[in-house]
């Protein structure tokens, strides 16, 4: 009857409203987790930047001190009327100033890179020197790991094909791909190193030595980036799950389970694909892009 129909309609509306609220909460939680993953990545990046920025700043400080001493010598030489010495000192000071500018620009570039990473850019594809980007972010990931909890020694091999050149990329996004994959590799190798520590103490000469290899190559219009580690490998039973959102093998609050999922999404947004090949003692993440 009419009354029963109105009652059913009201129940449907209430259920719909409840589902809409639940969906809004779910979307808000997802946004928070994505932001948490981005901040975790930024934290790792910042630790690497802190190390990287020390080098150019040390150069700036050293060249400034030397130039200050040279200025005193130049004033003395001018007072004595020694033109040859004055000219030589002027040239040296000029060279030092160029070095100060060079290393100051390097520090400025590192900071700009961090700011781009933290707030995102305009999302436009731009021709990007891929090998340079890989070198920079592998390096930042390594120093971030070294500055963090439980640092390990890692032999890093870069096998970057010279003719790769510039590739259309959203730099601030693709840098996260390199960071995430390197960070995962370091975590896996740390896990293996911890597991092998007892064997290491018994037979030091047979000790496990972590190694990260990063390759780029281009064949028939396809660009391949490989990030390989010699960690424990990924068990077959979870290999198909690792790219799924919220899947993580890390305990407690150590991982959101979004790192590889976001990495995969970024690669797809670049028209590429991410494949995983793993066996005990070796894992290779292979990115393919149309060049």
What do these coordinates show?
The relative contact order is 0.10. The chain is built from 7 helices and 7 strands, in the order ααβαββααββααββ. The protein is of the alpha+beta class and 291 residues long. It is 62% helix and 16% strand. It has 2 domains: 1-120; 128-290, 2-Layer Sandwich (Heat Shock Protein 90).
Task: Specify the biggest β-sheet.
Answer: 5 strands, mixed
CATH domain class name of the largest domain: Alpha Beta
How many helix segments?
Answer: 7
Extended strand count = 7
Short key terms for the protein model shown above:
5-stranded mixed beta sheet, two-stranded antiparallel ribbon, 7 helices, 16% strand, 291 residues, 62% helix, Heat Shock Protein 90, alpha+beta
């Amino acid at each position: 009857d009419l009354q029963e129909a109105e009652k059913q309609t009201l129940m449907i509306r209430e259920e719909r409203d409840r589902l809409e609220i639940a969906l809004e909460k779910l979307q808000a939680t997802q946004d928070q987790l994505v932001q948490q993953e981005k901040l975790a990545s930024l934290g790792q990046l910042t630790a690497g930047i802190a190390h990287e920025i020390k080098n150019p700043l040390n150069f700036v400080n050293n060249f400034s001190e030397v130039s200050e001493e040279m200025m005193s010598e130049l004033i003395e030489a001018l007072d004595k009327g020694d033109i040859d010495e004055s000219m030589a000192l002027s040239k040296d000071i000029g060279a030092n100033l160029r070095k100060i500018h060079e290393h100051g620009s390097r520090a400025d570039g590192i900071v700009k890179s961090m700011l781009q990473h933290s707030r995102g850019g305009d999302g436009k594809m731009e021709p990007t020197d891929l090998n340079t980007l890989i070198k920079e972010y592998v390096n930042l990931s390594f120093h971030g790991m070294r500055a963090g909890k439980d640092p390990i020694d890692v032999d890093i091999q870069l096998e970057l094909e010279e003719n790769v050149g510039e590739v259309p990329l959203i730099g601030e996004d693709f840098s996260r791909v390199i960071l995430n994959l390197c960070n995962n590799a370091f975590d896996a190798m740390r896990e293996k190193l911890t597991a092998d520590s007892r064997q290491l103490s018994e037979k030091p000469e047979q000790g496990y030595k972590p190694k990260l290899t990063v390759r780029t190559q281009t064949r028939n219009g396809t660009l391949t980036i490989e990030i390989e580690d010699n960690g424990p490998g990924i068990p077959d039973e979870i290999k198909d799950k690792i790219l799924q959102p919220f899947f993580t093998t890390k305990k407690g609050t150590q991982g959101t389970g979004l790192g590889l999922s976001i990495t995969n999404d970024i690669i797809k947004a670049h028209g590429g694909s991410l494949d995983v090949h793993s066996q005990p003692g070796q894992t290779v993440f292979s990115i393919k892009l149309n060049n």
